[in-house]
Amino acid sequence: MNPSNAEELDVPTIMRIGAARMTAGLDRMGRLDLAAHTEIFGPLPRLSVQQLIDIASEVDLRGQGGAAFPFARKLKAVVDTAKQTGQPIVVVVNATEGEPGSFKDKMLMIRSPYLIISGAALVAEALEAEEIIIGVTSNELANRSVEAAIAAEPGLRGMVRVVQQPERFISGESGALVRGINGKKPVPPGRKTLASDKGVDDLPTLLSNASTYAQLAVLALLGPERFASVGVPEEPGTVLLSVSGSAKRPAVVECPTGIPLGAVLDICQAPAGDGVLVGGYHGMWLDGETAYQVPVGREGLASAGGTFGSGIVLPLGDGTCPLGEVSRIASYLAGESAGQCGPCKLGLPTIARALASIVDGSGGIEALDVARRAAAAVNGRGACSHPDGTTRFVLSALEVFTEDLAAHVFHSTCGRPVRGVLPLPEGPETADAKQLMVDWVRCEGHGLCAHLLPELVHLDGTGFPVILPIPVPPWLEKDAQQAVQMCPALALRLDTDPKKRVGAQKPPPIPVAAPTVRSGLIGGPPRRSITAG
């Protein structure tokens, strides 16, 4: 494989509106090796911790992973903890990106890995950190690209290590990632602990999203003034958006903040239709007209009732049932919880079952009332942010898709099929997932399964089981096995879903060629090859 040929890389299309910054050079090369990265970006200047804090504060650099926490504050917090405790600092790059519909980090890992790594190395040198850890999931091409980048730079080999996590929705939560790196079960901790206080090996840890480090590298190269020459004053620069859903041309789009979201939808040939989900599956729905006009950015989307999140944009289009799409995702989110608290274990499945019964026409107004009451009961009571994000996604859908909701509640159907426009994961982690199935010839309606497994099974009005159509979550596998074994009629079984099997073909390897440039990632005056706008 020639890594300079973009056609051979199984990665999303890259599109731009305006300046090329984080995607600089990728219009000419499929992947930037060390020589190409140095030619385009040049070595980063050496900056002190205070200089990093100052430039990040000046442009209000925020995390790109969804929480939008100010990077300067995070940097200062980890420095303060290290001073108080006298402990060394660890730098962690969160490149797990386990949420369906998000692929900007994977694009950078595959095509411009040194931009992420150089941003992390810039911070590590300023903090005198002894180790950089990159948390990844199971995207083999992305992982090989990062490992090849580390191997090609002598200064990184002993300092940077890659740690793989399960590819689940909650694996990218900061607490879950820290637990996974520490060799524990990679789920959010029940009690909130800041990584800056106690992270990897209980050391002060600077943990940020992969795109955040890439953005920091661009900021260090350009300086605050040139960085802020594009975008809106309160949120300068460019952002990366992952656009799919109804898009005929799914892409990672780099664009300046402040432009209408409609411009992004247009270049991706993505009709908004009934609505657009912004911020991913913990995000908010906007009606099509509003979505087309709203400016890109945290404040612009928030002013219209949306959220930027991690930059996921999922237009729905016109040809699918909106409530059916929401029901699919609600069921998926119910199965993706850590299963640590009541709101996740019982509340989210209740919401998912209620939505499913509305969609199939069996629930009506009673099911709608159940969904709303369950959402109100769950919100703000979980051990992590997953219940809050899920209820935000569901409740905003009920507000935006009122016409579709009325059709299902009062007429049993909207007349449109559920086409699966919203993405769900397909990969090694889901290939062997098991689902609980009922043999209706044998089922006698004893109801024991609903008693043993209320998270997945409830009884309908006639006393027969209704099973949530999701893979059995890992934390429910023992209970599901028990329900199967104890069924008096032997009507239950656990089946591997054949639709979720994935081919075993592996992506082509990325060769580790000896770099022709040995100047290193940091040091000396930066070259000004990237487009400033």
TrEMBL record:
GO MF terms, alphabetically ordered: 4 iron, 4 sulfur cluster binding; metal ion binding; NADH dehydrogenase activity
Transmembrane segments: none
InterPro entries: ComplexI_51kDa_subunit, Nuo51_FMN-bd, Nuo51_FMN-bd_sf, Nuop51_4Fe4S-bd, Nuop51_4Fe4S-bd_sf
Domain of life: Bacteria
KW 4Fe-4S (keyword) present: yes
GO biological process, any: cellular respiration
Pfam name, any one: Fer4_15
SMART domains: NADH_4Fe-4S
PANTHER family, per database record: NADH DEHYDROGENASE [UBIQUINONE] FLAVOPROTEIN 1, MITOCHONDRIAL, NADH-UBIQUINONE OXIDOREDUCTASE FLAVOPROTEIN 1 NDUFV1
Protein name: NADH-quinone oxidoreductase subunit I
The organism of origin for this protein: Trebonia kvetii
